Amino acid sequence: MIIQTKTLKVHPQQEEPEQNSKLINPRHQPGTAFIPIILRHLLIQSVSSPSNHSAILSTHHVLHIRSTTSKTALGDRDWMWGCGYRNIQMVFSAIRHRPNYSSLLANHPLLTANFNPKGSSSLQTHHQTFHSPQLAQIPSISTLQHLIEDAWRAGFDPEGAADFGGSLINKKKWIGTTEAFVALARLGIRVRIVDFPQPSGPDGLHIKLFEWVQNYFSSPELAFGDHGSDSQLMSKDCRIKLTHKLPLYFQHSGHSRTIIGVETDNQGIQNFLILDPAKSISTPIKTASQLIRSIADSNSSASSFELADLFGRSLPVPQVSSPSNSYLSSKRVKSIVGSFQASFGSTLHPELLSPYRISLKALSRKRQYQILCVDDALPIPPQEQVNWHIIRSTRIE
Length: 397
Hints:
Elements: E1 2-6, E2 23-24, H1 35-46, E3 54-57, E4 71-72, E5 75-76, H2 83-95, H3 102-106, H4 109-112, E6 135-136, H5 141-153, H6 158-163, H7 177-186, E7 191-196, H8 207-218, H9 229-234, E8 240-242, E9 248-252, E10 255-264, E11 270-275, H10 283-298, H11 304-311, H12 331-342, H13 349-353, E12 357-359, H14 360-363, E13 369-374, E14 392-396
Parallel strand pairs: 3-8, 7-14
Antiparallel strand pairs: 1-14, 2-6, 3-10, 4-5, 7-13, 9-10, 9-13, 10-11, 11-12
Helix pairs in contact: 2-7, 5-7, 10-12
Region (Disordered): 1-26
Domain UFSP1/2/DUB catalytic: 121-284
Keywords: Hydrolase
């Protein structure tokens, strides 16, 4: 049963062990990049029966951004309280590449200028048309705190604002799905919340939650099949696919993570593929990320699917089927791809995949979940933002 209702709040609790944003060159990333491409490679290599194993992954543009115990450009010592902010940052890292949002975010006054303490005029230039070759930098925790307070002053989520006393800046307070909604909607990003208030299967299993996420990643909107030659490139391998889908903000009591895909293995075990801000990235995956970046930085015209095809197959070093891109078949690239495949050494692929998997059975440990989903559509016009002030959700039971 699906019900439209005012959203319930899943309050974060302790479970986990800056400056205003400017513009940056896309190659200078604050997190670990290309994880969907790397996971696809590992899944393909670990599959003994490809016809019985399926997975579908989000856009490769999403970055893994970790909570830290030290001061960084994106946040200051947020280890025990910052998971909500980090997941907003991870989702934002992918959104900023979308044509519908990229120019808006690269020049947004709430991301590039000083905040108006009264919140009265910050949207005056909100929807001017800009054309920037650069990406918006991912907002720091401090910027997100200012942004959420600005949204509260503008009338977003009055109940949530009251819960925090209208004050979040410089506070080490946990935030959740509704604060993520407020931050992104204030920027003009179309967001919605889906509530799963209780298990929908036997033994506490969240069957409808898994089905919803699987349908989200499997739906044809912005999937590789809509991109001409890219679809031919991707269809050659087994049922382990990369798409253009945006990641999902995923909340339960105690923690939040970012969903970047779904998987059903040879035994029928169903997993979410996730990025967890509380977990570090292993050395082999960091090395693989750096190797992919070395090609992406040297050849900006390479599509995500060319990169996925290049790094997604078994030895010997794959031949890229795009004759128009001679760089991708050069000796240097072949050497890099060989180093990429060797970077995993004799390490068991399931061990490398384990931090990114959460099974349907493991999800039964919590009763309620929330998902924040970004719609890849035209931004919210300033005059329509009032329609997002009261947060409502779709409730699935």
